[in-house]
Sequence to fold (176 residues):
Amino acid sequence: MKKHGAWQMAATLVREESTFIYAKPAPFLTDPFFTRSVSSAVIATLSDSDYQSKIAADPDFPKFHRLLEMAQKNLKLLADAGIPYGLGTDSGIPGRFPGFFEEREMELMVDAGLTPTQVITAATKRGGEFLQASDLGTLEPGKWADLIVLGANPMANIRNMRSIEAVYIAGKKVSP
Fold:
């Protein structure tokens, strides 16, 4: 991959997690960071014991957790080998929630052994590099300015990415 300049657009760790996390009440079902962006019907479905039983009944269910562990190990190996990577989630299909799953992907990347700096760079600068879009990915004069202002340092704890105080799109402040 390194020899040919191939990228890993990331490990999509949340894709792996979403194959098993709904077999019991997912820890984030009561998390305001999650619940503010989904309907009560979604929460009800994901909390339903019949739905959870259906997920757990998949004949391949026992393998799913190991797939996440393998994906995390592979991501760490690629990062340590210098293979370029970015953040990706495969979110948007049922059970994978845009916005929340990007933040969750960051947590799983740190759990895989990457530093918060590596993860934030993958989500920002590396995305611009991958797209060969020199006006994206970093905050510099003359570049497109989509950014979030946080109330806590994500370098100290990646979950501080949730401490959103302001959002700017194209340089204009919008409601978070």
Remarks:
- Residues 8-134 form one domain.
- The radius of gyration is 17 Å.
- The helical segments are 13-17, 32-35, 40-47, 49-56, 61-81, 100-111, 116-123, 125-130.
